């Protein structure tokens, strides 16, 4: 399991009518973190499309522990674990300093773009994240 760290300063676009980070924005950050991690290990969207296998989301979950506010500096820790032949889960921990403020996870399935159906995650792809 390769951990990936992503730093983010909360901007005005993330803030909702209650003055804290909007719950939908967590999911945007999860997507940004996942893409940044994939890019860092060479599993870019371009490479995925050339390979004919892409990651698609099956489910997102988030647990909000403490509110996040404008100008908060976050570190988001993320890692992936293969679940079954065609699925993988990416885990997230959102920190403000040393304080854990949220946890989340996304379940992905690996999708064959040529056959238009799920496929087993190739070992060489899984190895990029382990």
TrEMBL record:
Gene3D superfamilies documented for this protein: Hotdog Thioesterase
InterPro entries linked: 4-hydroxybenzoyl-CoA_TE (IPR050563), HotDog_dom_sf (IPR029069)
Family (UniProt): Belongs to the 4-hydroxybenzoyl-CoA thioesterase family.
Pfam family, one: 4HBT_2
Domain of life: Bacteria
Keywords on record: Hydrolase
Protein name: Acyl-CoA thioesterase
Organism: Campylobacter majalis
